[in-house]
Amino acid sequence: MQQKLCDFIVNEVNVGIFSLDKSHRILLWNRFMVQHSGIRAEQAIGANLFELFPELPQKWLSKKIESVFVLKNFAFTSWEQRPYLFKFSYHRPITGGMDFMQQNTTFMPVRNESGEVDAVIVNLFDVTDNAIAQNLLQNAMGKLEEFSNRDGLTGIYNRRYLDMRFTQELERMSRYQAAFFTVILFDLDRFKLVNDRYGHIAGDEVLRVVASRVLTILRDTDIFGRYGGEEFLLLLPQTDLAGAEIAAERIREILCSSPVQVGETKIQISASLGVSACHSGCSNPQQVIEEADLALYASKQNGRNRTTVFSADLRES
Ligand SMILES: Nc1nc2c(ncn2[C@@H]2O[C@H](COP(=O)(O)OP(=O)(O)OP(=O)(O)O)[C@@H](O)[C@H]2O)c(=O)[nH]1
Are the beta carbons of 38 and 58 closer than 8 angstroms? Predict the structure, then answer.
């Protein structure tokens, strides 16, 4: 009666159960294993596991099994380390990009009367639902973080992110002597007039177009964001002042190259830019931005729609 009950449980439980002797011969193969592998118990029992499933990671798995025989202890694996042992398909409409059933496994030693381990029982748990939920959660967290770094209007980075990256770049500079970077700060010219003449919604559209135009000419490593209302900031890692000036001029040219179309209206825009550099020994991000701001101010003073590179004499003027 007890044996019957055991057999019943082993077959009805929704867990894969099979056992192996020292030479990896299969001694037990429950219904879960039959259903998911398509191999009947009569075929499996007596067969060598690795001959029956040549796709199994033999080196790793035989080591794991061997450790249970030798140490006489339980062993475990989780889907996070190794997503699955057997390539069992998983039939669910939402699989979160997972092709196969995700599995946790437990290896249990079976001792004989003299205390020696003469078989290992392997339990295989289908944890696909958990894995999907965890992946969805991680994706959502990733999106949330990405979202918190973005400016809601333009989609480029926001000031919080720029400040964080600025600090990181400074740390990188103090760690690696060879690292350096430059900053471009730019501000749209007479943007108040755009708002006053065409309305705030048109002004918003202009800001979006500015961001998308600049994005088309940047390098992958450049970090570009909206620093304030109509003020934008770029961090250019491993770029010297001459390179930054070229980039700034490119930005200036693309912004005034053609008017921004908002509905039927064409709005001509331009920007004033300031460029400054962060040298080794520079520890204060604010100082670099201040210097870029002084240079930007000089561009405004000298007629707008121009680029100025920071130099010490700008402090005096
Ligand atoms: N539409 C819109 N306007 C904004 C936004 N943020 C700031 N502004 C506007 O940008 C304008 C900035 O005006 P000012 O600081 O006087 O500068 P300016 O008119 O660009 O003149 P100069 O910088 O001297 O060339 C103000 O009218 C702000 O209301 C925004 O998110 N959307």
Answer: no
